Every structure is written in structure tokens, then in C-alpha cells.
Amino acid sequence: MSIILEKFKEVLFSVVPITALVIVINLFAGVLAPIQLAHFLIGAAFIVIGLAIFLLGVDIGISPLAGHIGSSISKRNSVVLVIIVGFVLGFFISIAEPDLQILASQVAAVTSGAIGNMEILLVVSVGIGACLVLGFLRIMYNYPLYKMLTIAYLIIFALSLFVSPEFLAISFDSSGATTGALTVPFVLALTLGVSALKRDSKASEKDSFGLVAITSSGAIIGVMLLGVFKKLSGLSGVLPESEEAISGVIRPFMVHLPESFKESFLAISPIAVIYVIYNFFDLHLSRRAFSKILKGIVYSLIGLSVFLTGVNQGFMSVGAELGQWAAGLDHKAYAIFLGFVLGLLTILAEPAVHVLTSQIETVTSGYVKKNLVLATLAIGVGLAVALSVTRIVVPQIQLWHYLLPGYIISIVLAYLTPKLFVGIAFDSGGVASGPMTATFVLAFSQGVADSVSSANVLTDAFGMIALVAMTPIILLEMLGLVFKFKSANASKLAALEKAERDRAAREREALEKASKERDAILALQMAGAVDAGAEVAEAVSARTKAALDMKFDQDDDDDDSILPVEGIPSSDLYENKASEIESRDPESRELESSDDEINNSEANLESSASAARESTLTIHEYTEDEPLDDFTKEIPELDIAES
User: Fold this and answer.
1) Residue 440 DSSP one-character state
2) What is the C-alpha separation between 129 and 124, in angstroms, rounded?
3) Does 570 score more than 50 pLDDT?
4) Per-residue b/e over 508-529, b at no fewer than 16 CB within 10 Å?
């Protein structure tokens, strides 16, 4: 129950902005009649309920089924199996896509049946199936995505030379309509099932995106080939007359619900049949897993039925009315600005966009944020709708004036931007044109074209989805270049920091080495100075001791003569004694010699200490480490007297 509430909340916040915008415009301009506004609000409720149930079914049924099938066909490692299963899955998933059904119905209605509903469904589904096979083979053989897209769009540009303008618009619109709420989750799950088996994690990350872009190019090629062989030109489309309204507020929805259920059953039942057969022969899922996926398929059927009822009975007619009102304003710039706002808000209501952006954030481990991609997509879609309305009100602007330079820029950027962003960009361009774009915004463009005398509904209104699918590609590739630039700067900064750390380490090593050398030199010098001072002090001490011994030995015999004698002043006695000692020439000279040697010893020790300080200064200047005082204070001051 919590899952369905979460889905309901997600879809509600997506649909509310458009609903609020229509209500505000109607309050100030009175565009809609009361019964139309009531149908619009009921249709919004049907869309919210239907999409919530549909997305729940996709999560618990369609996506797990695609993941199992993708892993299975990869493990078989059979090219034939990949081709068969890929084509069958692509074909039936495309037919079941609600966006494509809506577009095909609109084309048939606008052309009054000249281009049939089933014709569009078949050629688009064949193109999707064929390109899905090519996408699988690309993953298996590691063929670069940007090269494959280059080849695909070169083929498209070549075919565009032989296609009438109306088929050109329809073909590019079909590429956007095929990548909706059902196709995108299924294809993405298939891609993950295949790419996750590859050993190279980086290759698997890049392979997780891009398959949607390849399949959507198949839709363009399919419709173009139909235009080449059908050889229709000069078609002029107009908005079909509104059917006679069914009385009542809720009754029209109840009347059309069984018809929508029938269309949805025909679209989804082939998927259920394929699932049962494939499980019997290959998957062999447990009973619980089998039942859960089958339940998800049933939810998708119910949700799709309710969603289509809300779209057809509530949203499309209001979109056309809003377009006609905007085109009738005094300044056409109002219609262009309103188109921008609608595009900005519509992208928030696309369920496939939320599926893709969440997967982008998951696969890139949060490196590419979901909200950043969503904001870029919103700006791109807003610009696309504004450009489309501009093309309608300015007849000189043709669709190829946008598409040709736009896709050339996108292909060139594919060679420059990181390859992961190439797949993200092309996939995002496809999912941006989902059910809300294919219904409400396309109906708005048709309403504008119907009110502009110089415009053709078929050639001018159609083509809007093509622009919605193209502009996000360019913006997201530019976003990839920004990430690339930031990564390059980060790498340069990391390299500079590493070089700085290495330089500091080398300096520390040099300083430590110099410090050790300094300590060794100081130790040697100090040891030499102390040893020299000790030898001199020992020699002086010995000679002084010998001299003193000699002196005191000679004085022992007449110690009393120096004592004071009564009647003789002590000073005279000392003077006489000094004269007597000085008269002893040998002893006096010996004592004087000892004093000289002591003085010389002091000078030698001072010289050694000075030399040690000079050596310290030299080492300090070499290492540029600590102040001289920090080293010199470590040199001990020798106490010469004690020595």
C-alpha cells in the first residue's frame, strides 16, 4: 500500500503544476466553459490515478521482466537469440506504448485518414525492434555509441532529402512518442541486464544508457521510409471537428473507459504472452516471482486504460482551446512565452523522466545528480516548445532550420563530451517527450497552428515533439563538457598538490640529512675541543702541582720565619719574605712558566669554541633551517677554571 501511495504522490506533484496553470489562466481570461473546466479537472484526476497504477505495474512487473530477459539472452551468448528476442520485444513494447498510440490517433485524425493509425504503429514498431537489436549487438561487441548514432543520423539526413515536409515532422515526432512511460523502463532494464554481465565496470556504466536513443532513431527511419514509399505530398491538416458532447460531467469518462481498456488490452497482452512463453522455456522463475510479475502486467493494463481515458476526454481538448486563445492575443510573444512555461512544467509530469533521472543518479553513484538532470531537461523542453510556437507564428522558419543544425551540433558534441553523458543526453531527449507532451503540449501547438492563418496544422504543429527530443540532448551534452572541465581542473589541482607534497617531502629529507650531518660535525668538533682542553688542563695541572710541591717543600723548613715577630710590623715582614722568594730565581721562573701555560690553554679552548660556532653558522646557512642562536646555544661554555 505504501508503494502505491508513493507513486500517487509522485504523479500528483507532477500533474498539479499544469492543472494550476490552466485554472489561473481560466480565472483571468475565461478561456474554458464551466463544463470544459470540469472535464479538465476530472481528466487530471484520471491521469493521476492511471499513471500511479501504471507506474506501479511497471516497477513490479515490466522492469523485472525486462531485467530477467536481458540477463537470459546475454548468458546464452547466441547472436541469433539476441536478434530474434530483441526484435520481438521491441516490436510489441512499441505497440503498447501509450504515447505512440496517442500520436498515431492524432495523425490519423488531422490527415482525415490519409495516414492511418495502424500504419504509423507498424512502421514505428518495426523500426524500434530493428534498432533494439542493433543496440544489443553494440553492447555485446563494444561498439562506441557515438559512432553508431553518427551513422544513424547520417541515414536520417539522407532520407530527409526524399521525404515531404509533413512526413519529416511526423517522423521526428514519432521518435519522441515511442520513448514513453512503458518503453523507457523496459528498454533501460533490458540494457542493465545485458551490460551488467560485462567485466569492465566503466564499460557497463556507459552501456547502461544510449539504447533508448538508438531505438528512437529507428522510429524516425521507419516513418521516413513510409513517406518515401507512400509518396504523399501536399497534405493539409486541420483540427477535427469536436464530437457531439456526451451530456453529463462524469458520464463521458465512463462511456470511453471500456474503449480505452480494449486498446490497452490489445497493446499489453502480447507482452504477457511473451512472458509466459519465455518463462516456460527459459526463465523458470519461482511461482511467487512469476505471480508478482504477472500482477504488475495487470496493474499496467488497468493504469493505462484509466490514463488514456483522462487524456482523451479531459486534457487534449483543453490544450487545443488554450492554444487557440494564446494565438488570438494581441502579441504573438504571449503565445511563445506560454509555450515556454508549459514546456517547463510539462517535463515534471513525465513519468519516464523520473525513471531515467533516478537511474542516472544510481548508475553514476550520485556523481550526476537527479535534480541537476531534471532542471536541465526542464529548461530544454521549455525552449523547445517556445521555438516550436515561434516556427508556427513566423512562417519563414521551417522545421529543418532547427533540426539540421541542432542534430549536427549534438553529433559533434558527442565526440567531445564524456561518453557517459552521450548516452544520458540522447536517452533524456527521448524520454522528455512523454504522454503529457504528446497530449497536452501537442494539442496546444495544434490549437496555435489552427488559429494562425499562415500555418498548417500537419506540417507546423507536428514537429514540436521533435524539438522537445532534440534540445535536451544539446544541453545535457554541454553539461557533460562542464563536468569534463571540472574534472580536468580537479585532476590538475590534484597533480599540483601531489607535486607540492613530493617537494615538501624531499625538503624534509634534505633537512633531516643536513641536520644529522650538522650534529655529527658538532659532536666531532666538541669532542676535539674538550679532549684538547682536557689534555692541556691535565698537563698544566701536573706541572703546577709539581711546582707547588717544590715550593712548599722548600718552605717547610722556615715556616716560622713568616710568622709575625713582636716589634716588627707585619708589612715589613711580608716585604722581606717577598724579597726572599724573588731571590729564589729558579722557583719563580718555574711558577711564571706555569702561569703562561695556563693562559695559553685558555686561549686554545676559546679558539676551539669559536671554530665550533663558525662551523654551526656554515651548516645553518646550508640548511636554512633554524636560527643561528638555536644552534649556538647548544654549544656548551667550557669552564676553564674548573678544567
Assistant:
1) I
2) 9
3) no
4) eeeeeebeeebeeebeebbeeb
